[in-house]
Amino acid sequence: MNQIFGDEKQRDVNTDDMNRMTYTECVIKESLRLMPPPATMGRRATKEFTLNGYKFRRGTNVYVDI
């Protein structure tokens, strides 16, 4: 990071910076490999409904596996 940013600690990261952060990219990819995000999609029911015999009230958080 010091090689990329030097004394400019407060500036925004740009595309050139990202291309030079190869080690950081490897760390992120390895972290995602070891602990992948769950493949679910969450929604909040806007009205009461029944699905496969299960009743859901309005405002219920509903999660679907993808």
TrEMBL record:
Name assigned to this protein: Cytochrome P450 4c3-like protein
Cellular compartment(s): Endoplasmic reticulum membrane
Key words, A-Z: Endoplasmic reticulum, Heme, Iron, Membrane, Metal-binding, Monooxygenase, Oxidoreductase
InterPro entries on file: Cyt_P450, Cyt_P450_sf, Cytochrome_P450_Monoox
Keyword Endoplasmic reticulum: yes
Native organism taxonomy: Eukaryota, Metazoa, Ecdysozoa, Arthropoda, Chelicerata
Gene Ontology MF terms in the entry: heme binding; iron ion binding; monooxygenase activity; oxidoreductase activity, acting on paired donors, with incorporation or reduction of molecular oxygen
Location, primary (coarse class): endoplasmic reticulum
PANTHER family, alphabetized: CYTOCHROME P450 4C3-RELATED, CYTOCHROME P450 FAMILY 4
Species of provenance: Leptotrombidium deliense
